[in-house]
Amino acid sequence: MDTKRLKKLLQDIKSGKKNVASAMRALKSLPFEDLGFAKVDTHRDLRCGFSEVVFCQGKTLNQVTTIVKKLSLVNSCVLATKADKKVYRAIKRIRKNAVYYEQAKIVVIGKNKKLKSEKTILVVSAGTSDIPVAEEAAVTAMVLGNKVQKVYDVGVAGVHRLLKHKQKLFKASVIIVVAGMEGALASIVGGLVDKPVIAVPTSVGYGASFKGLSALLTMLNCCAPGITVVNIDNGFGAGYAASIINRQ
């Protein structure tokens, strides 16, 4: 939608030719802003419920800050994922309200002003080494407006640790299970509950785990029903998917 069409749409709203609902449908097709190195989707919040998220890995500091600046002009809350301290400091210089979650490697700019969900997302990690990916999932779900609980270091090598928290498993609306090594924890959790389980394989493990491929294949071949699997180390994707489920 170009500037002329946008002006006409605004005129139609003022004159009563279009109501708010039809105007919103038209606005959903608004285009991106072309920065040359990136095409920023400034209206993803309108279509999908949350703004475009900035994946920082592989981008220069200038690219990240330029994208963040554009997105934060039109959104009350912006997320930057896979961000190290250098990225955070660069964002902080242009947006003083930026907050850094170091373990999750997420920068949050602003606050999500949308309605909050009263249902709980539970994030479970197999080991302490899986916590950074689990935190990425937890912070993502929290920023998207969900109640989040965490149960960490309850892997299958000592499954009694998990069973101590079975009431949290039963009460949660969605469960995210984060595990490296062989990734078997998702199967156990999936066999205990009657709710969606999102499995996140991590790249944690010895050589034959192939940087998360072993856990990924285990989770894809899981015999417990109702399990969805995201990509290796994709805590963000799991937190986002759990939030969508939680809003239904």
Structural notes for this entry:
The longest helix has 14 residues. The model has no long low-confidence stretch (mean pLDDT 86). This protein is α/β, with parallel strands linked by helices. The two termini are 30 Å apart. The strands form three sheets. A five-stranded parallel beta sheet has the order 8-7-9-10-11.
Q: Secondary structure elements and their pairing?
A:
Layout: H1 3-15, H2 20-27, E1 33-34, E2 39-40, H3 44-48, E3 54-55, H4 61-74, E4 77-81, H5 85-94, E5 98-101, E6 106-110, E7 120-125, H6 131-143, E8 147-151, H7 160-163, H8 166-171, E9 174-179, H9 185-190, E10 197-201, H10 213-220, E11 227-229, H11 235-247
Parallel strand pairs: 3-4, 7-8, 7-9, 9-10, 10-11
Antiparallel strand pairs: 1-2, 4-6, 5-6
Structure in a nutshell:
By secondary structure, the protein is of the alpha/beta class. It has helices spanning 3-15, 20-27, 44-48, 61-74, 85-94, 131-143, 160-163, 166-171, 185-190, 213-220, 235-247; strands at residues 33-34, 39-40, 54-55, 77-81, 98-101, 106-110, 120-125, 147-151, 174-179, 197-201, 227-229.
Largest sheet: 5 strands, parallel
Helix content: 40-55%
The average pLDDT score comes to: 86
Order of helices and strands: HHEEHEHEHEEEHEHHEHEHEH
What is the molecular shape? globular
- If strands are numbered along the chain, what order do they take across the biggest sheet? 8-7-9-10-11
| Number of E strands | 11
| C-alpha Rg (nearest Å) | 20 Å
- DSSP summary: helix tally: 11
